[in-house]
């Protein structure tokens, strides 16, 4: 089985393009089913986050046309989409997924959210039956690699999140967060993390709005804040100094007119908006309005990049772990793939053993059942001893990826068995001819 990854991320595509490919959680099963229907796809998983959309598939050699699938499914022009896509095959695909799960390919290296997002996508694909064999093993390997990186390096503890990047920006704008009021639109994990960071750094109070009001109430209670009705956003938004928005909406929640009205009610006191949604919740044109500071997911990258220098050494250690885990998984996959060859060799050798027993059947007619069982055990034991070294050589060749050795050993047994089979058929034909010649004519047989 072969692996293939195709996708785009924050390094290769702007948010304007990423938001056009973003897949809402409720649409993920349907999109995965559509991918499974593509020619050549045996297993599949789709990862869709704020910073990336990736398609991971397993195939038997007939390579699926994943760029074409993405272009058609999202109604995009392939020629304009393809320059932003990357593609990894086999070992490179394994390494890429290990790095993604370990947060080495994230906008903020070391952030913890990506591993949960990969596991969620894996869970959806498993429930659909789209991940069940080699791809499942690959993802389990990715989770193990990510766990090693977390436990053996300090990359997680010394990293920053998108939420903490938002705190840094807010401090630059306001100087101090003391007493600032926060409005969180959307009650997801990212919104909660951003709000928590802001509150821990001195923000005064919090309001939460969500389409499902019960979730807004639940999140607001964590911060002793206030839950407001989603339909009352326009009437209450001006009270907030900092607005964090991260919903699954496909349309802008805050447009230019709303922003102008909000600023007017604030008597032109500055307001800071953090839009960490993809697709974006806030109309990017709002950035032109004086007094409004809008940062989207891509804007946060520049702040995050300044922290990478401090984590360079830990990232190097993490990369070394990923290299080890990739090699270990590669050997494991190749060892698993050798099973059909081993079964083939054992079957061919068993054919040869049975043929020799058949040839010696006349000589064994006088043996007791116990003696015949002893002969059976003897020949089987000899066969197993004979196979031990060749099978060990097969397993070693599999671990080292020596395809020529695998083919040579397999061919030797196939050729030997073919020769043996031809000899047996020739002997059987001669015996039947001899028996026919010695038999009396039909009309002389007793009646």
Strand % is: 5-15%
Q: Summarize model confidence as the mean pLDDT.
A: 85
Give the helices and strands as they follow along the chain.
EHHEEHHEHHHHEHEHEHEHEEHHHHH
Query: Which superfamily, in CATH terms, is the homologous superfamily of one domain?
Result: Glutamyl-tRNA reductase, N-terminal domain
How do the strands line up in the largest sheet?
7-6-5-8-9-10
Alpha-beta content class: alpha/beta
Low-confidence stretches: 443-447
What helical percentage do the residues reach?
A: 40-55%
Q: Estimate the global geometry from the Cα principal axes.
A: elongated
* CATH architecture identity of one domain: 2-Layer Sandwich
Rg (C-alpha, Å)? 33 Å
Question: Remind me, CATH topology of one domain?
Answer: Beta Polymerase, domain 2
In DSSP terms, counting alpha (H) and pi (I) runs of 4 or more, how many helices?
17
Largest sheet: 6 strands, parallel
Instruction: Look at the structure and give the CATH class of one domain.
Output: Alpha Beta
């Amino acid at each position: 089985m072969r692996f293939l990854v195709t996708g785009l991320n924050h390094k290769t595509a702007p948010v304007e393009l990423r938001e056009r490919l973003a897949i809402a959680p409720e649409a993920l099963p349907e999109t995965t089913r559509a991918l499974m229907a593509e020619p050549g796809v045996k297993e599949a998983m789709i990862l869709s986050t704020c910073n990336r959309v990736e398609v991971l598939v397993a195939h038997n050699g007939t390579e699926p046309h994943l760029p074409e699938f993405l272009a058609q499914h999202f109604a995009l022009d392939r020629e304009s989409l393809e320059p932003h896509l990357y593609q990894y095959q086999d070992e490179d695909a394994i390494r890429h997924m290990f790095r993604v799960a370990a947060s080495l390919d994230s906008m903020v290296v070391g952030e913890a959210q990506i591993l949960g997002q990969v596991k969620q996508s894996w869970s959806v694909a498993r429930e659909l039956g789209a991940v069940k064999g080699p791809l499942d093993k690959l993802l389990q390997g990715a989770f193990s690699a990510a766990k090693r990186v977390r436990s053996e390096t300090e990359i997680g503890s010394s990293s920053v999140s998108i939420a903490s990047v938002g705190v840094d920006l807010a401090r630059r704008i306001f100087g101090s967060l003391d007493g600032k009021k926060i409005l969180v639109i959307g009650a997801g994990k990212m919104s909660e993390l951003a709000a928590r960071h802001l509150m821990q750094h001195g923000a005064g109070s919090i309001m939460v709005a969500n389409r499902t009001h019960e979730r807004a109430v639940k999140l607001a209670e964590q911060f002793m804040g206030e839950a407001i009705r989603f339909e009352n956003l326009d009437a209450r938004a001006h009270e907030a100094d900092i607005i964090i928005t991260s919903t699954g909406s496909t349309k802008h929640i805050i447009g230019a007119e709303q922003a102008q009205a909000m600023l007017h009610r604030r008597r032109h006191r500055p307001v800071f908006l953090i839009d960490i949604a993809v697709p974006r919740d806030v109309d990017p044109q709002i950035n032109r309005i004086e007094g409004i500071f809008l940062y989207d997911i891509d804007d946060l990258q520049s702040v995050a990049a300044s922290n990478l220098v401090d984590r360079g050494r830990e990232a190097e250690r993490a990369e070394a772990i990923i290299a080890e885990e990739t090699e270990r998984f590669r050997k494991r996959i190749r060892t698993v793939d050798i099973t059909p060859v081993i079964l083939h060799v054992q079957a061919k050798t068993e054919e040869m053993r049975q043929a020799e027993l058949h040839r010696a059947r006349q000589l064994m007619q006088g043996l007791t059942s116990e003696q015949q069982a002893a002969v059976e055990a003897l020949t089987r034991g000899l066969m197993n001893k004979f196979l031990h070294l060749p099978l060990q050589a097969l397993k070693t060749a599999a671990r080292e990826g020596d395809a020529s050795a695998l083919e040579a050993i397999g061919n030797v047994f196939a050729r030997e068995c073919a020769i043996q089979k031809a000899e047996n058929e020739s002997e059987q034909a001669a015996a039947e001819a001899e028996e026919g010649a010695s038999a009396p004519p039909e009309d002389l047989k007793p009646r």
